[in-house]
């Protein structure tokens, strides 16, 4: 397995775990909706079933384009739901942004065992930092959970790999050629072992580090998630059905 493939696998999984941390497993919470937080409103949407779109704005509620009549206490709950959801956004973004840093640093440390010259030269750090900065900028500008799905995270990972892999591949290739030309069979074998260690254990090590560092921060969000579920209790859509934006296991 090449260095490029190794990095693609490890970084894709690491970034996805860092950004999402699977709230369904940690907080036992899930939603069938994507959420977009705009300046003027919060929009929940999904392909099926109805209601396919739920919009909240300053204590008002509409589902699939129809305004929902609310009592004053229900208006207060809708407004509080929106406010609390908005308060969660920077916290989630902070976890994802820090996760990108941790994942990239961990992959850099793992890769350095196979390509130490790339680290010593500073080229690996320069290229990696540039790409990570761009991804973090996109995280900061994000407004929708669509930007946090697995496909998007893997795209981010592939962008990093496309920049970093050539540097590592060139370093490993140069080392192997020099060792072979000098007849250093033991050195060549050691190089193969380092690459093999990155292939076989790097992913588990990286994910383990991320889970240990980020899981407590995700767990700290669980009470806020549960509060959102409580605030929606008793609210209905325009057809009179219970509003079900957040599902909590066991409720």
Automatic annotation (TrEMBL):
Pfam family, one: DUF2884
Keyword list, A-Z: Signal
N-terminal signal peptide: 1-20
Superkingdom in the source lineage: Bacteria
UniProt name for this protein: DUF2884 family protein
Organism: Luteibacter rhizovicinus
Lineage: Bacteria, Pseudomonadati, Pseudomonadota, Gammaproteobacteria, Lysobacterales
């Amino acid at each position: 397995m090449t260095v490029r493939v190794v990095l693609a696998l490890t970084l894709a999984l690491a970034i996805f775990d860092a950004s999402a941390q699977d709230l369904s497993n940690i907080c036992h919470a899930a939603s069938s909706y994507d959420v977009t937080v705009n300046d003027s409103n919060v929009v929940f949407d999904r392909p099926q079933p109805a209601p396919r779109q739920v919009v909240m704005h300053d204590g008002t509620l509409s589902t699939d384009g129809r305004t929902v009549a609310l009592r004053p206490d229900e208006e207060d709950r809708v407004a509080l739901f929106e406010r609390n959801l908005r308060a969660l956004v920077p916290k989630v973004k902070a976890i994802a942004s820090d996760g990108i840093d941790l994942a990239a640093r961990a992959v850099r440390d793992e890769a350095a065992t196979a390509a130490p010259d790339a680290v010593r030269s500073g080229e690996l750090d320069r290229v990696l930092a540039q790409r990570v900065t761009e991804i973090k900028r996109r995280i900061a500008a994000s407004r929708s959970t669509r930007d946090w799905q697995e496909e998007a995270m893997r795209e981010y990972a592939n962008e990093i790999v496309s920049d970093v892999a050539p540097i590592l591949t060139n370093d490993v290739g140069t080392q192997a050629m020099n060792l072979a030309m000098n007849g250093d069979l033991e050195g060549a074998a050691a190089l193969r072992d380092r690459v093999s260690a990155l292939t076989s254990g790097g992913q588990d090590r990286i994910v383990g580090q991320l889970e240990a560092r980020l899981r407590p921060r995700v767990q700290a969000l669980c009470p806020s998630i549960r509060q959102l579920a409580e605030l929606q209790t008793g609210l209905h859509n325009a057809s009179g059905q219970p509003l079900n934006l957040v599902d909590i296991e066991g409720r």
